[in-house]
Amino acid sequence: MRAMHCHSRPAPPAAARCCARRPSLVIRAQQVAGQGKVYIDPTEKEVAAFAPATVANLGPGFDWMGCAVEPLTQPQQTAAADVQGEGDVVTARVLPDKPGQVVIESIVGDGGRLSLDAPKNCVGIAAIETLKLLGVAPSCGVALTLQKGLPLGSGLGSSAASAAAAAWAVNSLFGCPLPKEQLIYAGLASEAAVSGYHADNVAPALLGGFCLIRSCEPLDLQRLAFAGELWFVLVNPRFEAPTAEMRAVLPKEVPMKQVINNCAMGGSLVAGILLGDAALIGKALNSDAIVEPVRGPLIPGFGAVKEAALAAGAFGCTISGAGPTAVAIVSDPEVGQAVQAAMVAAFKSAGGLEVNSAKVVRLDNEGAKRV
What is the DSSP letter of 115? Predict the structure, then answer.
């Protein structure tokens, strides 16, 4: 097991600890062909888990900063359908007499584009890796269903939300023996299969809040606390920007002046988070001189969208993840509504793009949870 350091993560309130009242783990020895073998039994027959959308990079924080976001009004989470559109929901069910097997029974909301073959799907990979992390052979298999609430290739951490929800659902099925920090390894293995070995989406999808990724090999991250509430505007146009394609345009060499700018703005981004200063976060987010200049032109109308957001009162605007979603930081929900309208209009007029979704959201400090 690789070393992992995860620092300064405040405990969530008791009501938010989805496994706070978990039943005792059931680990037993069973005779198999004359030899003793240790198994872990599930503590429940079925568990559904939700993981939120995430905003990665945040301007100068390319591949090392991300945060989780949630809607302003929390839905009544009595069924998976209630959270559709804000994140992904994975249901894990016990498969008796199929120890260690992982199968995907169904996927809803992907338009038939995702594979049902578990080793070829991010939820299946995350589930398989979570079972490995248990350290003890499971006495049963796991059947998964996935409800996609996030569009594919949106820049909102779609694959990370699926992986985080799958890891938390499977972990919960066995009584939550693993902390969320350990499940990041399962999410990393899943992300590596679809978008690269980086944790700036999957870490906040699991942990909530802001996550600063110092290293993935070995995994070393810092969860950063933001005092108060932080408001974002997310506008997702009808235009797909696959992560692999958006990575292909990144420069191989960067002028020193741009490096210095991004180092200063990255420091300002962290300072803004720790100081609880939304304006400073917005200023830093708005100032990427390396990645946004090469990715922005690939998203029709993005330059005009950024200008419109700033003119309407946003502290800053950039590309969420690999895009095409544009993200802005605002002072409050009322300003957010004006910024949202301006960004939608700019995507239509300058980019000729209709919009899948446009909303004002806030920082999500919980991350993956049961529903």
Answer: -
The position carrying tokens 């020193």 is 256
137 in Cβ contact with 99 (< 8 Å) = yes
Of 151, 144, 190, the residue nearest 170 (C-alpha): 144
Phi first, then psi: what are they for 109, rounded to 5°?
95, 5
Mean pLDDT by 10 residues, the chain (371 residues): 47 42 50 62 97 98 97 55 69 95 96 95 98 96 97 92 98 97 97 88 98 96 94 95 84 97 98 98 98 96 98 98 96 98 98 96 96 95
CB 13, CB 46: distance < 8 Å: no
Cα–Cα distance for residue pair 271/275, rounded to 1 Å: 6
Alpha helices by DSSP H, listed for 138-255, are: 158-173, 180-194, 202-207, 243-248
Give the burial class of 75: count Cβ atoms within 10 A of its Cβ; 0-12 exposed, 13-18 middle, 19 or more buried: middle
Q: Which amino acid is at 124?
A: G
Q: DSSP code of 298? A: G
Please tell me what DSSP assigns to residue 365.
S
